[in-house]
Amino acid sequence: MDLKTLEDLIRIFEASGLGELEIEEDGRRMCLKKSGAGPAYQAAYAPMNPLPAPVAVPHIPEPEHVATIDSPMVGTFYLAAAPGEPAFAAPGDRIAESQTVCIVEAMKLMNEVGAKIACIIEKVLVENGQPVEFGQPLFAIRPL
Amino acid sequence: MPSQSPYTPIVSNPPGTRIVGREVRTFDEIDSTNTYVLEHGFEGLAVVADRQTMGRGRLGRTWFSAPGLGLWCTVALEGDARGLVFAAALAVRDAIAPRCALTIKWPNDLLLDKRKVCGILIEQRGERIALGIGLNVHHKAEDFPEELRAKAGSLEMLAGGEWDRAELLRGILTHLDQWVILLRWGGHDAVRREWAQACNLVGRRIRCGESEGVVAGIDDIGALEVDSPGGRIRVVSGDLTVLDGD
């Protein structure tokens, strides 16, 4: 490459949007680099090589720990003390610590199940009168 | 309020037991002995009333507690309630045994001549346990509401003779004390076996709610293992009817 060709090449490079130009000819290598080329390079290529874009991926919240009130024994689940009486607890109710939320009966032992912590009832997980197992979640709750 | 009973009032002296009935409180009238114990009970207290204004059974059913005619009593215990269902039924059976033989209807009603003379209701609230016993003693047939006459009875109606409620109370507390001590000393299996034998249900055809079948066995907690047309099921609560004879 003669000097004239080199001068032309530099002018074209300067006028171009390129930040860096590397030429190899007859075993000789030449590298032209504009000052501050790094950021320009990054900016130029970023759109062609998209990172895992936060805007493109739906936001997945961290799994929330679901607290429950569980059955202390095998038995039958009752939401009220007697048929026709109001339920001990319903979704949205604010429950104090130790407050009775249901009865689990086995062998005519009526066990009043109390909340271990103050909470709000989110959901009743078992239907009235249904059998339940030991440790089975009865209510989903939000601790206060 | 003075007692309306023509019979000897229930005396309140403790029976000299180790746990059950260490203190006995008597009331002429109370809403429910179980409610009193759930609210004010402590280990071993026995509460007796001549009349309950709101006596109750399973699932809030009214327990007919005629003034002065029966023994309405609740024992307060604390902690583990496992096995108390068995102990309570056995204690009543044993206390009456010198005079007549009551049968235990699963899980813990006591019958005489197929009529219910005693019901037991155990309620647990936290650590506190109310073990309620309702025993019909002096009733005549006409003392029961009409809807109960065909299936309820009293000791005096069915066994005859004179019965003393204070003596019955002492007997029941004394026997219950022995069964509770056995439970506390790790004798759950022995108590359960004795009770299961008294229930006499294995091999019998029963109906409980919508379930029907033959009782194949009784498990650790006293639940029935029943071979029904749909396979083996487990019955832990409900009103039981024996379909094949006595």
Number of strands of chain B: 12
Shape of chain B: globular
Element pattern of chain A in H and E: HEEHEEEEEEEE
Second CATH tier, the architecture of the largest domain in chain A: Beta Barrel
Structural class of chain A: alpha+beta
Q: For the largest sheet of chain B, list the strands in their spatial order.
A: 1-2-3-7-6-5-4
CATH class of the largest domain in chain A: Mainly Beta
Order of helices and strands of chain B: EHEEHEEEEHHHEEEEE
Most strands sheet of chain B: 7 strands, mixed
Query: DSSP helix count of chain B?
Result: 5
CA-based gyration radius of chain B: 18 Å
Average pLDDT level of chain A: 78
Question: Which strand-content bin applies to the residues of chain A?
Answer: 25-35%
Total domains of chain A: 2
Q: Cα distance, first to last residue of chain A?
A: 79 Å
Oligomer: heterodimer
Fold topology:
The complex is a heterodimer of chains A (144) and B (246).
Chain A (H helix, E strand, L loop, with lengths): L2 H13 L4 E6 L2 E6 L3 H9 L21 E4 L4 E4 L15 E2 L4 E7 L2 E6 L4 E6 L6 E2 L4 E7 L1
Antiparallel strand pairs in A: 1-2, 3-10, 4-6, 4-9, 5-8, 6-7, 8-10
Chain B lengths: L22 E8 L2 H8 L4 E8 L17 E9 L5 H13 L6 E3 L3 E4 L2 E11 L2 E9 L18 H5 L5 H20 L3 H12 L5 E4 L2 E8 L5 E5 L2 E5 L4 E3 L4
Parallel strand pairs in B: 1-2
Antiparallel strand pairs in B: 2-3, 3-7, 4-5, 5-6, 6-7, 8-9, 8-12, 9-10, 10-11
Commentary on this structure:
The complex is a heterodimer of chains A (about 140) and B (about 250). Chain A has about 140 residues and is of the alpha+beta class. Chain A folds into two domains: about 5-45, no CATH class; about 65-145, OB fold (Dihydrolipoamide Acetyltransferase, E2P) (Beta Barrel), CATH 2.40.50. Chain A contains two helices and ten strands. Chain A has helices spanning about 5-15, 35-45; strands at about 20-25, 30-35, 65-70, 75-80, 95, 100-105, 110-115, 120-125, 130, 135-144. In chain A, the strands form three sheets. A four-stranded antiparallel sheet of chain A has the order 3-10-8-5, with no helix packed on it. In chain A, strands 7-6-4-9 form a four-stranded antiparallel sheet, with no helix packed on it. Chain A has a two-stranded antiparallel ribbon with strand order 1-2. In chain A, a hairpin with a 2-residue loop joins β6 (about 100-105) and β7. The longest helix of chain A has 13 residues, at about 5-15. Residues about 35-55 of chain A have low confidence and may be disordered. Chain B has about 250 residues and is an alpha+beta fold. Chain B has five helices and twelve strands. Chain B has a seven-stranded mixed sheet with strand order 1-2-3-7-6-5-4, with helices on both faces. Chain B starts with about 20 loop residues before the first strand and ends with a strand. The interface of A and B includes residues 85, 108 and 114 of A. β7 (about 110-115) of chain A pairs parallel with β6 (about 115-125) of chain B.
